[in-house]
Amino acid sequence: MTTLFDPKKTAVLSLHMVNDIASPKGKFGPMFGEQVVARDVANQGKALVEYARSQQIPVIHVAVRFQPGHTDLVANSPLLTIVKEMDALVEGTWGADFIDEIQPLDGETIITHQRVGAFQDSQLHQSLQQKGIEHLILFGVVTNNIVEHTARNGVDYGYYVTVVEDCCAAPTLAVHQASIENMRLVADIKTLAEITSS
To answer: Which CATH superfamily, name and number, covers 7-196?
Structure first.
């Protein structure tokens, strides 16, 4: 599937580019840090965001954050249980802040959520509808969780979805590649170079 996108109807979603997840020094650094560094996801993502801004394509920053004590976390999955056990992604802490390379600009939308995917129990769909968005360009950490989950949900909500493969990372390269292959049935898979040259 190849979709030529209209910048006026497209948004770039920066998914979970926060310190606890996307920084090697974060709480999930031992899990994801090696691949985040090896794939240079911070700088690749920064380049994608800067390109989007240059084309007047909205950038939406999606963060998973919880109240102190994780009182708003429903620990009904192994992943969310780990978040609570590690005391990770707490609102107001360094770990929940966006990484230095990809800081929201004034006026850019920030979506916070507490579930596995970006759409559930958040204002993401409403925000996209208000902007007249039909096509989502996704990147972030990790490929097999927030990126894949949001890609599938996005399609179910009626959006065209593109995943920028070399702006994502997973715990291992094999897991990343498997997730990308899974998403080929629901999303257009592109590289950063392909996006910026379109």
So the answer is: Isochorismatase-like (3.40.50.850)
Domain boundaries, the chain: 7-196
60-91 b/e (C-beta count within 10 Å ≥ 16 → b): bbbbbbbeeebeebeeeeeebeebeeeebbbe
Encoded tokens for 42: 């911070």
Count Cα neighbours of 115 within 13 Å in the Cβ-side half-sphere. Answer: 11
The burial class, CB within 10 Å (0-12 / 13-18 / 19+), for 184 is: exposed
For the segment 30-56, what is each residue's pLDDT rounded down to a tens digit? 999 999 999 999 999 999 999 999 999
How would you write the chain as a 3-class SS string?
Answer: CCCCCCHHHEEEEEECCEHHHHCCCCCCHHHHHHHHHHCCHHHHHHHHHHHHHHCCCCEEEEEECECHHHCCCCCCCHHHHHHHHCCCCECCCHHHCECCCCCCCCCCEEEEECCCCCCCCCCHHHHHHHCCCCEEEEEEECHHHHHHHHHHHHHHCCCEEEEEEEEEECCCHHHHHHHHHHHCCCCEEECHHHHHCC
Q: pLDDT category, 1, cuts 50, 70, 90?
A: very low
